[in-house]
From TrEMBL:
It comes from Pseudoduganella guangdongensis. It comes from the Bacteria. This is Acetyl-CoA carboxylase biotin carboxylase subunit. Residues 120-317 form the ATP-grasp domain. Residues 600-673 form the Lipoyl-binding domain. Keywords: ATP-binding, Biotin, Ligase, Nucleotide-binding, Transit peptide. It holds the Pfam family CPSase_L_D2. The keyword Nucleotide-binding applies. Residues 1-458 form the Biotin carboxylation domain.
Length: 676
């Protein structure tokens, strides 16, 4: 067994690997970029070394730097996690050349599976079922379009060296092929340094089912059952679960054996995932093999009672697999939700900012049906803490929330409850969206396919609703109590002196005060509070009730609203009051008439960058007349392309940035004049 390993990654996966290493008594070395100097993964490892600037290509993607650190610190092996260099065959070879164990598959297996085209040719020889398509080397645009026309639309274009949903486009018609191909190749070269693509028939209502495989150097190769990863947005997974709903024992065995055949065909060693696209009728086709640990590996661990990172380390150290196929069984059901810093209502646009408030659901501690290795039925894998920042340099994942249940029904209920308890202030997240998704009919009834989100768009993106009265009352109480504390602190007054505190006390009458709040959609709320000796009288929209605070613990409040007890958490962020109550998150902006006196309106007529990023294409010229929705500029941020479109019919007056320029969040990209 190794005594010390270097973790060549960051964030939650670096923390995840470190946790297993610590349990095994293995010392760990963290590496970090300048942007990650105070990151959680730096704190949880035994040593940490700076490897360069924030940009991944100057730090986490520099294999020579990582190897130098490993040798200097006495590490015997390198765990690459996922992403970055985890599937880089040259890096694996470089490790071997200096005597470092690479905790992953052989470089030959990565090369074989790293090209989707070559992998599919290998799978065809191994009799693994394939989707109709073109996987060859001819990358001429006209030839590729001919192949797409032959296959029949819709067609899926994929970066041959890709993964993680990047460099993928669904094309509905021959007329749309040229632009989609150009965009796909731009994203592919940016993300993987290779713009080669393949084309496949895009199956209607397919499911995405993957098989976890594991092999050692002693000739053993097994599968640890399946995960259903059908719920996706922009071809990236949102929810994953194991086992796959509706999976028969016969089909599971057939898919598992096909996955093992795929692994054996390339001499695989270590943890890997064979991904299949499956029709509703039960037929399935090989899609690709990920030669690394998957993001969603925890759901497999939860139902099998295994630690896949431990298995990775043991196999890399030359040990045999801890279990054989006959010893593996499925126990219960597990679901994983990816908590992202993104705004689902704005096309899942990534968000950046500081986690000014972070409260997670508590773990439920017990052994899962007697299966060892699981301390809880609620597990959170995260690489951030309260006060940490989500930057534009890396993937915007905040955490993975994983739950286990004796069956799918219990796991669903536990996931909904856990999401209701997850609180984040400081940036946009997908938590509310995930809760709607988990509680929605389609997912609850396992009506699954990769188009589930689009198919249920209306239910998952309902019209904005009014903020509940209880949330408004909590915000009002929080504001008033905060003012009382501030006035007392500023005046230094005795707590018994009503003149020196903002208690609302008046000599001959009760003080009535009208507050002004607005929600995220601009809707106004104007509650009237009349100060009473032991609370307030609360009025809003014809409702009149007494209101009192009976318990306060930091930002947690318990109030009495009429005859109803209400509990919640209120966190103030500038003028915004974030209210968490009843399983919901409501944001109310306090409109203080004295706070913004003299401010002028921002300059209009300029389209701005939604986040920091790089301009990769300028599609309009100065003086061009454009229609609403026309694409004007394409930016790249967080490894994804984002199109800036014309908000109205109008004229482009000035282009302010060129291709290749880096732009800041909110920077004007071009001057735009709306048509009269």
């Amino acid at each position: 067994m190794f005594k010390k390993i270097l973790i060549a990654n960051r964030g939650e996966i670096a923390c995840r690997v470190a946790a297993t290493a610590r349990r095994l008594g293995i010392k760990t070395v963290a590496v970090y970029s300048e942007a990650d100097a105070n990151a959680k993964h730096v704190a949880v490892c035994d040593e940490a070394v700076n490897i360069g600037p924030a940009a991944a290509k100057e730090s986490y993607l520099c294999g020579d730097k990582l190897i130098a650190v490993a040798l200097a610190t006495g590490a015997e092996a390198i765990h690459p996690g996922y992403g970055f260099l985890s599937e880089n065959a040259e890096f694996a070879d470089a490790c071997a050349e200096v005597g470092l164990a690479f905790i992953g598959p052989p470089a030959s297996a990565m090369r074989a599976m790293g090209s989707k085209s070559a992998a599919k040719q290998l799978m065809e020889k191994a009799n693994v079922p394939l989707v109709p398509g073109y996987h060859g080397d001819n990358q001429d645009a006209g030839f590729l379009q001919e192949q797409a026309d032959r296959i029949g639309y819709p067609v899926l274009l994929k970066a041959s060296a890709g993964g993680g949903g990047k460099g993928m486009r669904v094309i509905e018609s021959s007329e749309a092929f040229k632009d989609a191909l150009a965009s796909c190749k731009r994203e592919a070269i940016s993300s993987f340094g290779d713009d080669k693509v393949l084309a496949e028939k895009y199956l209607l209502r397919p499911r995405h089912i993957e098989i976890q495989v594991f092999a050692d150097t002693h000739g053993n190769c097994i599968y640890l059952f399946e995960r259903d990863c059908s719920v996706q947005r922009r071809h990236q997974k949102v929810l994953e679960e194991a086992p796959a709903p509706g999976m028969s024992d016969e089909r599971r065995k057939a898919m598992g054996e096909a996955a093992v055949a795929a692994a054996k065909a390339v001499g695989y060693v270590g943890a890997g995932t064979v991904e299949f696209i499956a029709n509703q009728d039960g037929s399935f086709y090989f899609m690709e093999m990920n030669t690394r640990l998957q993001v969603e590996h925890p759901v497999t661990e939860m139902i099998t009672g295994t630690d896949l990172v431990e298995w990775q380390i043991r196999v890399a150290a030359g040990e045999a697999l801890p279990k054989q196929q006959s010893e593996l069984t499925i126990n219960g059901h597990a679901i994983e939700a990816r908590i992202y810093a993104e705004n689902p209502e704005k096309g899942f646009l990534p968000s950046i900012g500081t986690l000014r408030h972070l409260e997670t659901p508590a773990a439920v501690n017990f052994e899962l049906g007697g299966v060892p290795g699981h301390p809880s039925a609620i597990r959170i894998d995260s690489g951030v803490r309260q006060g940490d920042a989500i930057s534009p340099f890396y993937d915007p994942m905040i955490a993975k929330l994983i739950v286990w249940g004796a069956d799918r029904k219990q796991a669903l209920a536990r996931m909904a409850q856990a999401l209701a308890q997850y609180q984040i202030v400081g940036l946009a997240t997908n938590i509310a969206f995930l809760k709607r998704l988990v509680e929605g009919d389609a997912f609850a009834t396992a009506d699954l396919d990769t188009g589930l989100i689009e198919r249920n768009h209306e239910a998952l993106f309902p019209p904005a609703r009014s903020v509940p009265v209880a949330a408004i009352a909590l915000a009002a109480v929080s504001l008033i109590e905060e003012e009382k504390d501030q006035s007392a602190a500023q005046s230094g007054a005795n707590k018994g002196d009503p003149w020196g505190q903002a208690l609302g006390w008046r000599m001959n009458f009760h003080y009535a005060r009208k507050l002004a709040f607005s929600d995220e959609h601009g809707k106004q709320y104007a509650p009237m509070l009349t100060y009473l000796p032991h609370g307030w009288h609360f009025e809003i929209k014809g409702l009149e009730v007494d209101l009192s605070l009976f318990r306060q613990d930091g930002v947690d409040l318990s109030i009495k609203l009429g005859e109803t007890s209400v509990h919640g958490t209120v966190r103030r962020d500038g003028d915004a009051f974030h209210v968490f109550t009843g399983g919901g998150h409501f944001v109310l902006d306090y409109n203080d008439p004295m706070a913004h006196a003299g401010e002028s309106e921002a300059e209009g007529g300029r389209l701005t960058a939604p986040m920091p990023g790089k301009v990769v294409a300028v599609l309009a010229e100065k003086g061009a007349q454009v229609k609403k929705g026309d694409a004007l500029v394409i930016m790249e941020a967080m490894k994804m392309e984002h199109t800036i479109s014309a908000p109205h019919d109008g004229v482009v007056e000035e282009i302010l940035y060129a291709v290749g320029d880096q732009v800041a969040d909110g920077a004007p990209l071009l001057a735009f004049k709306t048509a009269a």
